[in-house]
Specification:
By secondary structure, this protein is mainly α. Helix content is about 70%, strand content about 0%. The chain has eight helices and no strands. It is elongated.
């Protein structure tokens, strides 16, 4: 059975990814996972466990959950991204300085990307496509250039 050029897993995933703030949700979830992993670091590496350990585990789980919810429920992305950025900033105090800054930065950047995502935005046109369209417009406007190959 042969597939057409637009059928398959990659185009379907690309379409799914275009309908949601994919990178924002992914970065927020990765930031939460990174902070959770740094909580399990050896005692030589741990800087600050935080408020009896409970908030140290709770905030990264909230970050991870908000990232996943942004991916699978993009209609509520504004709420999830605000909660995600607050949880990310809270890990500064509760979880090894926000997972040694890496998880904190991933969470804040991912939340900002999700907050700023617009669902009805036209896809960006690449530089090559813009140049090709400009060249076609110039060629159409100068008939002498089409016939002789020289510019007027």
């Amino acid at each position: 059975m042969s597939r057409g050029p637009r059928e398959g897993v990659r185009p379907a995933f690309r379409q799914w990814r275009a309908d949601r703030p994919f990178w924002g949700g992914l970065l927020l979830a990765l930031g939460g996972a990174e902070v959770l992993l740094t909580l399990k670091a050896s005692l030589d590496v741990i800087l600050h466990v935080g408020m009896q350990g409970l908030a140290g585990y709770l905030l990264p789980v909230v970050m991870l959950l908000c990232g996943v919810l942004i991916l699978f429920n993009p209609a509520q992305r504004l709420f999830y991204s605000v909660i995600g950025v607050l949880a990310s900033l809270g890990t500064w105090l509760t979880s090894n300085l926000g997972g040694f800054f890496v998880g904190l930065l991933l969470g804040v950047v991912g939340s900002c990307l999700a907050f700023g995502w617009l669902p009805d935005q036209e896809p960006r046109v690449g530089r090559r496509q813009r140049r090709k369209e400009a060249k076609a417009a110039r060629t159409a406007s100068h008939p002498l250039e089409r016939q002789t190959g020289q510019t007027a």
